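Customer escalation, tier 2.

The customer says the design service returned an amino acid string that "doesn't look like it belongs to this structure." They asked us to rerun it and document both sides in this ticket. The original structure tokens are below, unchanged.
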């Protein structure tokens, strides 16, 4: 196995990844909340953990990847009061809540498929695990770590901390400071302590989504679902839990408290969090009018966009920065990513069709071989250093120069061994496609027609029908492609 180091939010340092079970990894990532379409902020999170999943698989691990869907319990304002977001949408649109859930889930899957994000091993829903959430709540009451109040049940932070808990450690929050911040807002009500959070909420008469429980009709709190589902599918303690940095507090902090209290042990060994996506230096938000839907990116019909951008361009853009770094979204950055993606994609197309000649005698150049092998190792060194995709991509561009040199003939096949060429070909393709999830985007209208059109182009050129030659060139250009008149052949590529 490759010596992978990842930054553990819990210890606040990079640690050598050592799974609980030698060849198996348990990975849980907080999935979407069903109240809106996928936006770029959480798309970055899902893409980052797709890279983690892909890389773990690539270096030989078997991964059980669980990503939940929150379809109940997430209240407006993300607190313990208010209206369920799915229920609110259902009322507005005069639909059953599960219609909203089904529509969103389908849209979510379609968007992630466009961005080439692999599906998880298991995708459980909160509504599918009501029984487990009720049973866990009952267990916490029996242990004296939760209490019922007016039909709702709350987790008791003070008792938890007195019994060895450390609420606030993950996020670096201090209990006394949190109490000062919340006392004026939440000091009066059903809770014994303003920091206590809901495990189960009593349903108001107008609340649509409700289930029977020992405390009356209600619905689970937002935080409880992840604890119950990760425990069910990954066990008492599993390897990696991930999500956006906005979930560190309170969501992940509450997960740790619930799990420690319920199962008497820390639930996760490595906590990983992705950083924010900003737009022209500002935090992305609907109120500022600078958030994008994927459909707006593909069409280029948002006021802040100069043009349309393809899914692979956006994915490549997101890989320009390591997942823990802030990533600034701008037209200049996207245009640079578009150019970089097309260079990389051209290399992918070329290296796949190149073959080492069987009729040559190799006379390897030690310096050339070292540059190729060092760049390949550099890709892995970058990925092993807390999934630094930016470093890996920089080394891929070094390999791209070698590929282009071989393709144009400026670097002779004889200068490298068959073994080094095979390593170059295999590594470039597998790191791009299998690890980074980058693939070619041949325009639909040109798919399967390029070779036939090139044959026509060659014939028209030989017969000096230059009007037809220009017509075919124009057809390629309108599809974002170009024709290359090589010394001994004619080829095509992506227009950079």
């Amino acid at each position: 196995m490759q010596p992978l180091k990842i930054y553990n939010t819990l210890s606040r340092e990079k640690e050598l990844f050592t799974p609980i079970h030698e060849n198996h990894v348990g990975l849980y990532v907080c999935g979407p909340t069903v109240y809106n379409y996928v936006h770029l902020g959480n798309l970055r999170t899902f893409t980052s953990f797709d890279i983690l999943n892909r890389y773990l698989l690539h270096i030989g691990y078997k991964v059980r990847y669980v990503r939940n869907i929150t379809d109940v319990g997430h209240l407006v304002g993300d607190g313990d009061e208010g209206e369920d977001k799915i229920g609110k949408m259902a009322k507005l649109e005069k639909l059953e809540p599960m219609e909203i859930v089904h529509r969103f889930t389908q849209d979510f899957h379609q968007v992630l498929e466009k961005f080439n994000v692999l599906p998880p091993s298991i995708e459980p829903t909160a509504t599918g695990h009501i029984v487990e959430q009720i049973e866990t709540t009952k267990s916490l009451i029996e242990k004296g770590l939760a209490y019922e109040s007016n039909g709702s049940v709350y987790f008791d932070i003070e008792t938890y901390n007195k019994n060895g808990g450390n609420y606030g450690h993950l996020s670096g929050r201090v209990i006394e400071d949190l109490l000062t911040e919340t006392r004026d807002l939440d000091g009066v009500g059903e809770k014994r302590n303003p920091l206590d959070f809901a495990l189960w909420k009593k349903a108001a008469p107008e609340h649509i989504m409700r289930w029977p429980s020992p405390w009356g009709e209600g619905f689970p709190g937002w935080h409880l679902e992840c604890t119950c589902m990760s425990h069910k599918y990954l066990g008492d303690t599993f390897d990696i839990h991930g999500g956006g940095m906005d979930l560190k507090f309170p969501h992940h902090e509450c997960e740790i408290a619930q799990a420690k209290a319920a199962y008497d042990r820390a639930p996760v060994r490595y906590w990983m969090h992705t950083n924010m996506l900003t737009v022209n230096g500002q935090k992305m938000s609907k109120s500022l009018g600078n958030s994008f839907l994927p459909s707006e990116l593909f069409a280029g019909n948002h006021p802040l966009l100069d043009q349309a951008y393809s899914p692979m361009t956006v994915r490549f853009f997101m890989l320009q920065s390591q997942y823990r770094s802030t990533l600034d979204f701008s037209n200049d950055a996207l245009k640079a990513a578009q150019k970089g993606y097309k260079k990389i994609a051209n290399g992918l197309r070329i290296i796949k069709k190149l073959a080492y000649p069987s009729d040559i005698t190799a006379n390897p150049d030690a310096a050339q071989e070292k540059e190729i092998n060092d760049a390949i190792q550099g890709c892995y060194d970058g990925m092993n250093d807390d999934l630094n995709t930016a470093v890996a991509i920089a080394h891929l561009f070094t390999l791209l120069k070698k590929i282009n040199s071989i393709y144009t003939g400026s670097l002779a096949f004889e200068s490298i061994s068959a073994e080094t060429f095979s390593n170059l070909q295999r590594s470039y393709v597998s790191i791009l496609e299998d690890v980074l999830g980058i693939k070619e985007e041949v325009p639909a209208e040109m798919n399967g027609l390029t070779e036939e059109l090139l044959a026509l182009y060659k014939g028209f050129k030989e017969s000096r029908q230059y009007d037809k030659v220009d017509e075919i060139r124009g057809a390629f250009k309108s599809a974002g492609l170009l024709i290359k008149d090589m010394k001994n052949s004619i080829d095509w590529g992506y227009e950079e």
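Tier 2 assessment: The sequence is consistent with the input. The longest strand covers residues 238-244. The first helix runs from residue 40 to 58. Sent an explanation to the customer and offered a walkthrough call.
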